[in-house]
Amino acid sequence: MIPLKIYLIRAVYDWCCDNHFTPHLVVYVNEYTQVPKAYVHDDEIVLNISFNAVKNLELADDFIRFMARFNGQSQEIVIPVGHVRFIFAQENHMGLPFEVEPYQPQSSTTSSDKASTHQDDEFNDFKIIKMDKK
Fold this sequence. Notes:
This protein is α+β, with helices and mostly antiparallel strands.
């Protein structure tokens, strides 16, 4: 099953673009996150993913990939979807926060481990978000 998180990230990205806002990601960084380490602070990085800032943006089911320039040098950025902490519009900071799900390579668990873990997590990940009316 494809995680709901990537669909929510895509939706906020589209909302930002439709409203001429600048979408940004706050990303947890570890050894599985390919970003320029010089811009990482406290194991996270904030990235502008607007059409004007990146090239070849791919919001895939498991990873977010794109090319971006840092200090004039083009670099490939690869982010596991589970590492996205927040997607928001720079202009008004509206967006969605997420819990970090550190990336685990598939080879580290057996198929029976994956099945039992998935079944347990299915209910633990459900959350109710209360929205304040203005």
